[in-house]
Design a protein that fits this description.
CATH class: Mainly Beta
Strand content: 35-45%
Radius of gyration: 21 Å
Order of helices and strands: HEEEEEEHEEEEEEEEEEEEEEEH
Distance between the termini: 30 Å
Largest sheet: 5 strands, antiparallel
CATH topology: Tachylectin-2, Chain A
CATH superfamily: Glycosyl hydrolase domain, family 43
Structural class: mainly beta
Number of domains: 1
Helix content: under 10%
Number of strands: 21
Shape: globular
């Protein structure tokens, strides 16, 4: 076999052209799934106003064919000035439906008081992730706990705030989930990754039975958002940290934040049928964690900032996991046509009938409902044949 370094120029050109062609197909697939114009509201926030959201979770299907959706209700509030400014993340809700696009019926919820087991005060609730695994249900939950910063950096902590960690509840079915079974799986880290939140749980690409847990981390300064990865070996209980930089922050539109929110196996169809398995990774990005002032003479565009991120896309060959490559290098791929342009927390569910994509989408009133788009498998096949 000829090594890549020794390949003739014509062969290397053909390989590059093939890779570019496949990337274009993946780009089109992502754009069709997260179609801002075709999005329908699945779950509305508690008010149609700035600072009110629902989302940050995912949709799964159980053995009986019931669809389950998890997400947190977030009401207005600002951690920059302390929790006295509002309720912020107040409830993790679970809904069910017999259709991936709903209507969705709220079954039950966990409040901050519910999740404050063993006397732990919960300040806020953020991202969550439902996972079905070998007859069990796992619900990963990120909460801000009323904890003090480590002594060396305690002066950086704002009054009324805490530290973010990730916990998990497991049960035989979704309806059997109880907060009393809550246990910690990823605790706060060193100052450079003091806060860990927004879990995304899925099978490690490649099918060895291990569990991947992607999460977002923030330093004690809240100056950036990053993506970490922890792994759990099959038949074991504990996760081990593998990296705090699964997908490093970009150089342009996503220089301040790169938060992976979903791993989607791409169907092995069409042009991809004879290729190694590929997965898409949706992520949120931002230029700065605070809204930037624009020059009146410059181009006006959504820039993305904390809580108003824009959407990007990466991909990886499963056999090379966790190595990922960006598809949205110089600009975001997913921008709401309304409000701040925010389009974030994309999650997908691949079924035999098609693919469901859900995400939080900024509205004219600046609220962020959970919206969704279902693309039938026939359309997916057309894209992958192109």
């Amino acid at each position: 076999m000829v090594s890549p370094a020794c390949q003739p120029a014509s062969l290397k050109t053909n390989i590059f052209a093939m890779e570019t062609d496949i990337q274009q197909i993946l780009h089109r697939l992502g754009s069709v799934l997260v179609d801002q114009q075709r999005a329908s509201v699945l779950v509305s926030p508690q008010a149609n106003s700035e600072g009110y959201w629902f989302g940050g979770g995912n949709v799964v299907i159980d053995d009986e064919g019931t669809y389950w959706l998890c997400g947190r209700y977030r009401n207005h509030g600002d951690s920059r000035t302390g929790t006295g400014a509002g309720e912020r993340g107040l409830e993790l809700a679970l809904f069910c439906s017999d259709n991936p696009m709903g209507p969705w019926q709220k079954e039950f919820a966990f409040t901050k008081d519910d999740l404050g087991v063993n006397g732990q005060e919960i300040v806020s609730i953020e991202g969550s992730s439902l996972r079905m695994i070998q007859g069990l249900v796992e619900l990963f939950i990120s909460t801000e706990k009323a904890q003090r910063y480590p002594k060396a950096i305690e002066n950086f902590q704002k009054p009324g705030t805490g530290c973010w960690e990730i916990d998990m509840i497991s049960a035989g079915s979704v309806r059997e989930l109880r907060a009393s079974n809550l246990r910690n799986v990823v605790e706060r880290g060193d100052p450079e990754a003091l806060h860990v939140k927004d879990p995304v749980a899925f099978d490690v690409p490649g099918g060895n039975g291990d569990t991947a847990l992607i999460f977002c981390s923030h330093p004690y300064t809240w100056a950036s958002s990053n993506t970490g990865l922890a792994l759990r070996v099959a038949d074991q209980d504990e996760f081990s940290l593998k990296t705090l930089q699964l997908l490093e922050r970009g150089a342009a539109w996503d220089v301040a934040a790169t938060r992976v929110t979903d791993c989607m196996p791409v169907p092995a169809m069409g042009r991809l049928a004879d290729m190694p398995a590929i997965s898409l990774y949706f992520y949120d990005g931002a230029e700065c964690l605070r809204s930037l002032d624009e020059n009146a003479a410059a181009v006006s565009r959504p820039r993305g900032y904390s809580c108003e991120e824009l959407g990007g896309l990466a991909f990886g060959f499963d056999e090379k996991f966790p190595s990922l490559s960006r598809l949205s290098v110089n600009e975001p791929m997913f921008v709401s046509p309304e409000g701040t342009g925010c389009s974030r927390y994309v999650s997908t569910l691949v079924t035999a009938e098609g693919i469901l994509a859900t995400w939080q989408q900024s509205q004219p009133d600046l609220s962020q409902p959970l919206v969704g788009n279902f693309v039938e498998m026939e359309r997916i096949a057309e894209i992958l044949e192109a």
